[in-house]
Known about the structure:
4 domains; alpha+beta; Dipeptide-binding Protein, domain 1; about 550 residues; globular; 19 strands; about 30% helix; five-stranded mixed β-sheet; D-Maltodextrin-Binding Protein, domain 2; 17 helices; about 20% strand
Amino acid sequence: MTKIHSAVLDMQSDLRKGKINRREFLRFATLLGVSATTAGIMAGCGNQPAAPSTPIPIKRGGTMRIGTALQEVSHPARLSWVESSNVLRQVAEYLTETGADGITRPWLLERWEANEDVTMWTLFLNKGIKFNNGQELTADDVIFNFEQWLDPTIESSMATLLSYLSPSNIERVDDYTIRLHLDAPQIGVPEHLYHYPALIMSREFEGDFIKQPLGTGPFILTEYTVGDQAVCQRRPDYWRMGVDGNPLPYLDELIYIELEVEERVEAMQGGGIDTLYMPSPRDWQVLKEVPNLAVYGVSTAQAFVIRMRVDRPPWDDVRVRQALMLCQDRQRILEGSYFGQGELAIDAHVAPIHPAYCEKPIPKYDPEKAKTLLDEAGYPDGLQVKLITKDDRSEAELARILRNLAAPAGFDIELNTIEPAKYWEQWTEVELGITHWTHRPLGTMVLALGYTSDKEGNPVNWNETRWVDEEFNTLLRQAERTLDIPKRREIMCQIEEIMQTRGPIGISYWRKIWTIIRAEFKNVKMHPTGYDLFYDVWKDT
């Protein structure tokens, strides 16, 4: 680092005064370009003497088999599911990485710098990194990717996150330096660059990753068959080194195997796979008792979102939406659908794990008040509605519990539980549904993806509820450029209040998730978004 942003020094003062906690300081100091090591020292974390180092018995070789879903893949910028991104991230990489600890660090980037008002970000690439076709990664490749993300014909969710950036404002400084001149201030740029569709492609990429699997990552894609199997084999000339002084990865091969959800537990018990994508709490209950399996858990901002399309009756009436929100007995829903493995939530898509979260009381179950609201909305005899959801996680159980809880209020809920693929084909179109949203490290990030409008005032691609609120949008943009954490929390308090009082969703709880894997695999990291980070995992056999 040649410079520390002045806001970091202000935050350090706030930390010493107790206005913010150490975690908040570390997250935002690193976002503003301070290395994690330096930020730790500034926060008082790095003053202890280092423990004596002991050799790590790294072993190389072996195969890992992962039970998952193998979906259609074309352009990585259009990725909508973590499952497919988990295969691609073994082959291609990101400019940054937000780790399991919530800290964002440089990856393909060496470092970055932001100006005082976070309207200009300078990105410095590591030198000498090569794609698996031998081409060196340069600024031209990075600029190509930004242009792809912002191209409306690509229809990438990155365009929503990068709404503050115009293609004409991307500057090539030199072969390894890119400068972004933002249309509006934005604190979250480094974390946005780890959104799972932000994989860095070669400028030679023509739009189909399966036909052209170019990347800088530790593995090479040798097979990808939708609904069957994907094979990633060790790349011998990967740019990152292991602790043994040789190139990563340690494993020779990753095999992703398509299995139905109910088949994965049996495959784990029988030795057919070594780990599985996003085990349910029911899977966890069974597999945690199986010998020779390791279980890693983490709290997240993942949620089953009860979402209502506000451009369709009866959900265009805020009283009806409020009535359904009041029908959540959140503790009963958590226990009945997820074995109590989570944290109760408010009806705003901001979680306690997010920086600047504003704590508010958990709303109480109140069917009588809900019934009064339905009466005021013109439904004195109750209301019949259809709830559509999928059946691969805990959505179906949540839907059944909600149907029973809502009956005393006058809701007659017809359940339509469908296969996951069919739900995802129509997830932005259903009038009333339950959509699983994965973890994002910043509350502002998920709010921008799911609840905002474009420059013409139209809901963005992932705004499944079609809810557009001018005050909400204005406050969100203020939060995105507010460096002072206590002030940003004040703004988030207002945002959360708006979502609770006139928003389009209900969230009963935030999910805990697990990695369950054979114990011989070492150095496994549990990421709250469910990302497969296997580049430095080894097999002890």
